[in-house]
Amino acid sequence: MNTEKIQYFKDTDTLFAITEKYPQTIEVFAANGFGKMVDEDKRTTLGKTISLKDALKLKNKNIDIFTALLRNSIDGESQSEDVTLRSGKDEDAEIMIVGGLPCPVRIPLLEGLDKFMGEFKEEHGLSVKHDLKAASQGAGWIETYIDKAKGEEDLPEIFISAGFETFFDNKRIGRFINNGSFADRLPFKNTNSDFANIDIMDPKGDYSMIGVVPAVFLVNENVLGDRPMPKTWEDLLDPCFANSISLPVGDFDLFSSILIHIFKEYGEDGVRKLGKGLLESMHPAEMVKSDKKKATPPAITIMPYFFTKMTKLGGPMKAVWPEDGAIISPIFLLSKRNAKKNIQPIIDFLASKEVGEILSHHGLFPSINPSVDNRLEKENKFMWVGWGYIYSHDIPKMIAHCEKIFNGSEQ
């Protein structure tokens, strides 16, 4: 059956009607500027008052692209049960996993985890519960698990999340990190050879990393004109690109990582210049079609590597992997050092070749696992801020400072 021919909804349907019939679309709305749709009360009240067509018009979003995103999310769910509903709900579970999963790989990862959990319970007699939401929902809800914990025993056994803020906040998770509550328990010590140019393993042995989200450039050659093709991050800071760059400001994890790396390499002046280069904030799905915009489109967009594969061959959009390395937003794994139950098989699974290939092949999020073929060109390097820099700085405070500079509110 060709699911693309199915008309799941009409553009005159309300946002509430669409999300009520297809709950999986809530993630798509949330990832594309409709964050209020995550709140059930606001989704019920506000969602009933506006149609999809009018909502997209207000947000100045391309209806064809957005409709395709909604349809893809429904197609993916219609091919199998919603694993977010059928698994991870055992209230008496002995082991808890909490975190955010990147949207492009969330469903296949949950399907793999669901299968593993059944086998794990049968072999070890332990049940696993998880609360794994879409990364697009942010990390605020993860922090509630940390804030309500009076001691290490109250924490989930395993955390997963991309980005820096949640796992490096000394006022929250830091109190447990400093007490040695977590340990790097990955089943391998050598990382994938694609990361040979950086030291990605935590020398203190507290944090684990299972993959990364790389940020690259997408250049519209029609708009670029006679300006030089940007090849490095420093190139983007050239005044010739003022008001010419689109950034994933709404993708908090990746945007924060970009700010941290630019600040480290080029200081406040670099962050300020990057802010002056901002033309607009766009979701990556819009960026790849920005050459179709009636208004002046950006010459350069910074986006996750995954979305560059959505560009039309032979068109004006050219993907550029920075010569000085793609800035990465790490996908972290925190696991308890002294868990009461045996969680090592779960860690082994989350760091396995199977999961690594889902990250790498489905989402183009290169895996750390040395057995995974990330299918990258040999010259493609990564830019990594480094553990020494992370441990010597207050990361959340630095991000807040950089955001003020970027927005021009702190000169």
Secondary structure tally: strands: 10
CATH topology-level fold name of the largest domain: D-Maltodextrin-Binding Protein, domain 2
Question: Beta-strand level of the residues, as a percent range?
Answer: 5-15%
- Average residue-wise pLDDT: 85
| Main sheet specs | 10 strands, mixed
**Global geometry:** globular
**Rg (CA only):** 21 Å
CATH H level, superfamily name of the largest domain: Periplasmic binding protein-like II
CATH class group of the largest domain: Alpha Beta
How would you describe this protein?
The protein is an alpha/beta fold. The protein is about 35% helix and about 15% strand. The protein has 17 helices and 10 strands. Strands 1, 2, 3, 4, 5, 6, 7, 8, 9 and 10 form a 10-stranded mixed β-sheet that branches. Strand 5, helix 11 (about 250-275) and strand 6 form a beta-alpha-beta unit. The protein is globular, with a radius of gyration of 21 Å.
Per-chain topology:
Layout: H1 15-21, H2 25-31, H3 40-45, H4 52-58, H5 63-78, H6 83-86, E1 95-101, H7 103-124, E2 128-134, H8 140-147, E3 158-162, H9 174-177, E4 208-220, H10 221-224, E5 245-247, H11 252-277, E6 278-281, H12 284-287, E7 300-304, H13 305-308, E8 317-320, E9 326-335, H14 344-350, H15 353-363, E10 382-383, H16 387-391, H17 395-406
Parallel strand pairs: 1-2, 1-3, 5-6, 5-7, 9-10
Antiparallel strand pairs: 3-9, 4-7, 4-8, 4-9
Helix pairs in contact: 7-14, 7-15, 11-17
Overview features:
alpha/beta, globular, SP0561-like, 411 residues, D-Maltodextrin-Binding Protein, domain 2, single chain, ten-stranded mixed beta sheet, 15% strand, 17 helices, 3 domains
